[in-house]
Amino acid sequence: MDDTLDKISNLYSHNLTEHGDQSKAVGWPTADSQELRFEKLTQVIPEMDDSFSVNDYGCGYGAHLEYLLQKQYSVAGYNGYDLSEEMLSKSKERLKDFDGDLTLINSSKISTVADFTFVSGTFNVRFDSSYKKWKQFIEETLTMINESSNLGFSFNLLSKYVDWEEPHLFYGDPCYWFDYCKVNFSKQVSLLHDYPLYEWTVLVRK
Ligand SMILES: C[S@@+](CC[C@H](N)C(=O)[O-])C[C@H]1O[C@@H](n2cnc3c(N)ncnc32)[C@H](O)[C@@H]1O
């Protein structure tokens, strides 16, 4: 698994050099589609007056925090995790005016507890790791995410409901992952598969 994570880190560092800090560098063809993903993931947050903290697992250059601030969410703390040091440097630069607690961590292991955790696109690339191994990696990572999220978390995966699959990507069966979250993490689980991307989002509220 370490070998695959190294390749993923190199891929995204390379993409950042090639495209600069825009959506293409994190695998999204357009900024609109990146934002649509954030919109879906953010639905895990109920209407609340209090400020909250966030873990962003695979934060890229920090665009999800920028989205939350632009939408006037009151974010007290943001912990961005990424395998790519270059992505984290770019996050640090872009998020320098954030007036909450900013922590950027170069690791795939979560060491902070937050109110909500978001995962956008982080599980998509598996390179030559087998389907079975990657599925197990996602399950273990979701368990870690569940343990470090007080109020809930949300994640997206490419959908099994596609006509064509790229050999190095992971496509998730939404029914399997809905059930997995319902059985293992919480009674309050939503599956969103009604938006115009070849993906779905699961929201887990506690
Ligand atoms: C598809 S990009 C999305 C970035 C960001 N979530 C966004 O939507 O703008 C995935 C990011 O996750 C990072 N990543 C992939 N696997 C990771 C892991 N296991 N732990 C931490 N970061 C990871 C990659 O380096 C990359 O920057």
Task: Compose a concise summary of this entry.
With 206 residues, this protein is α/β, with parallel strands linked by helices. The protein is built from six helices and eight strands, in the order H-H-E-H-E-H-E-E-H-E-E-H-E-E. The two termini are 30 Å apart.
CATH architecture: 3-Layer(aba) Sandwich
CATH topology name: Rossmann fold
> What percentage of the residues does DSSP assign to strands (E)?
15-25%
What Rg, in angstroms, do the CA atoms define?
16 Å
Low-confidence parts: none
The CATH superfamily appears as Vaccinia Virus protein VP39
The mean pLDDT is 97
**Ligand species:** S-adenosylmethionine
N-to-C series of helices and strands:
HHEHEHEEHEEHEE
Helix content: 25-40%
Number of domains: 1
Text of the CATH class: Alpha Beta
Quick one: biggest sheet? 8 strands, mixed
List how many beta strands DSSP finds: 8
Count of alpha/pi helices: 6
How are the SSEs placed, and which strands pair?
Elements: H1 2-19, H2 31-42, E1 52-57, H3 63-70, E2 75-81, H4 85-94, E3 101-105, E4 114-119, H5 131-147, E5 149-159, E6 171-172, H6 174-184, E7 188-192, E8 199-205
Parallel strand pairs: 1-2, 1-4, 2-3, 4-5, 5-6
Antiparallel strand pairs: 5-8, 7-8
The protein binds S-adenosylmethionine.
